[in-house]
Amino acid sequence: MRRLLLVEDEPNFARFVQMELEHEGFDVTVSHDGREGLQLATEREWDLILIDLMLPGINGIEICRRLRSQHNKTPIIMLTARDTVMDRVAGLDSGADDYIPKPFAIEELLARMRALFRRLDDDETEQEGSVVFLDLTVDVPSRTVTRQGKTIELTKREFDLLLALLHHRNTVMSRERLLNEVWGYEAGVETNVVDVYVRYVRQKLDGPDKERYIQTVRGIGYMMKT
Fold this sequence. Notes:
By secondary structure, the chain is α/β, with parallel strands linked by helices. It has helices spanning 11-23, 34-43, 60-69, 85-93, 106-126, 156-167, 175-183, 192-205; strands spanning 3-7, 27-31, 48-52, 76-80, 98-101, 130-133, 136-139, 144-147, 150-152, 173-174, 215-217, 221-223. The longest helix has 21 residues, at 106-126. The two termini are 33 Å apart. 27% of the residues are buried. GO terms for molecular function: phosphorelay response regulator activity; transcription cis-regulatory region binding.
């Protein structure tokens, strides 16, 4: 059972989210105050922390900053009624892993949580080893890619895109999903940037206009099929 901390000052909304998450099998602890929430986040082990932006005592952004300054790597999703570009950027820059504006459907929150848990589980599984696909070897800790012993130089974003596709081998990945997994929720990033970076990676792996490693699924997105 995953243990969640919800820091939310609206009692009715907090109770609603708590009940829905407990119905899904999570163990949820609720705090209605920023200072208490920070103390709980620091003193106990959590699988995920959900934090409202506007809180009494200490706001959600400051909680994120303090946790990250303590090298606390617990995943954080920020919940807030404020949804301007600057609010999203401030939330993510403070250390939040995701940002979801209110009001939201509980199904969307659960989907965001599942995506975050999948990324974390994949990282834990592969952080000490390599991923092999056809004649490519992707070494995750050193972030290097080799083909038949020859190193292929990729930028950080290109490597992250390749790794996201490898994590979901044999699954069609839409442009929107790749954008969320690789770029997060960066302001001003459009889905066509995915096409641009897929082209960059292909040119380095395959050569121009070839699709040996990354295949296009017309009208949907991309996949790496074994």
